[in-house]
Amino acid sequence: MPSGKHQVVVVALENVLALDIGIPVQVFGSWPDGPYTLTVCAERPGLVAMHGGGPVLSVADGLDALATADTVIVPGYLEPDAPSAAVSAALAEAAARGSRMVSICSGAFALAAAGLLDGRRATTHWQYAGALAKQYPRVTVQPEALYIDEGQVLTSGGVTAGLDLCLHLVRHDHGNRLANQRARLLVAAPHRTGGQAQFMDLPVPPDPDDGPVPVYEWALRNLHQRLTVDQLARQAGMSRRTLIRRFHADTGRPPMRWLLDARLGLGRELLETSDLTVEAVARRCGLGTPANFRTLFKAHVGVPPRVYRETFNSAPLEEA
Question: Which residues contact 17 (CB under 8 A, 6 or more apart)?
Fold first, then answer.
């Protein structure tokens, strides 16, 4: 390793997602005169399968590469679950030595299994957020965030959010000028803040065996109404306390926050697929006045309703 360069080590788990591992390799590894060196390692050196049945990775280094890492990055992998005890121990040891620990997409599950997300805020691909919250209740999962910087530990949402996080690391380490140069070379947006939201689908009920599915389906059918926790409890045939506990267990969120996500998800769907006015969208989502809808949408999605529609729908948004 050239003296003075920051060593980035990427951990390739079995069935690693090709784009997820490609992002740190491009940002930190294809930079001959840059301030980083990059190593890809695996639990067992050799051939590592990538998701999709495509090419395999040929990895020369094992987990001992983490011993000298300044930054460790765990890309996403298929069907995320806890990795092996050896991987978890190696990640925990790297963190204890002071390495900066980073995940892309479902790589957050590996950090969580190593105990590195306990008591911290974290994000992952929105599709896996519920599972992460359920499996690791000591983690405060924020599925709407593109990425979250908790100092030594950083996590990012799905796919291209990993690029935002990697550019954020360059910006943190070396300032805006170098980060912007790197972004231009990669033809990427130079700066999307971590607070900008992932664009998520409408929340769906849990699997039939996991929770009181009828109440979720009933709520999704009645988002235009004013719904309360007590109404949901009566619909589910549960006490208020039991319902709140089940929502946390099933979704990682309290009932009213799940409802807000569902209302915003419906709002996004209507903005994408209809020519309704903002007043009509707000009414169908149960989010009150157009002004209230705009405020909540901007706060949680990261862009105003008009900008969102311009991005995903050619129909102009009529303001009320």
Answer: 50, 51, 75, 76, 77, 78, 105, 106, 159
- 178: which residues sit within 8 A by CB, 6+ positions away? 35, 170, 171
Q: What is the CATH number of the domain that holds 222?
A: 1.10.10.60
Report if residue 206 sits inside a domain: no
Q: How many domains does the chain have?
A: 2
Element (H, E) at 214: helix 213-221
Cα separation, 185 vs 46, in Å, equals 31
The sign of the torsion formed by the CA atoms of 308, 313, 319, 320 equals: negative
Q: Are residues 127 and 91 in the same domain?
A: yes
How far does CA 225 lie from the centroid of its chain? 30
If pLDDT is split at 50, 70 and 90, which confidence band does 309 have?
Answer: confident
pLDDT tens for 181-205 read: 887 777 665 545 444 555 555 454 5
Residues contacting 207, CB < 8 A, separation 6+:
none
149 and 259 housed in the same domain: no
Please check whether residues 148 and 46 belong to one and the same domain.
Answer: yes
| Range of the structural domain that residue 162 is part of | 6-185
162: closest CA among 208, 198, 115?
198
Residue 39: strand pairing partners: 9
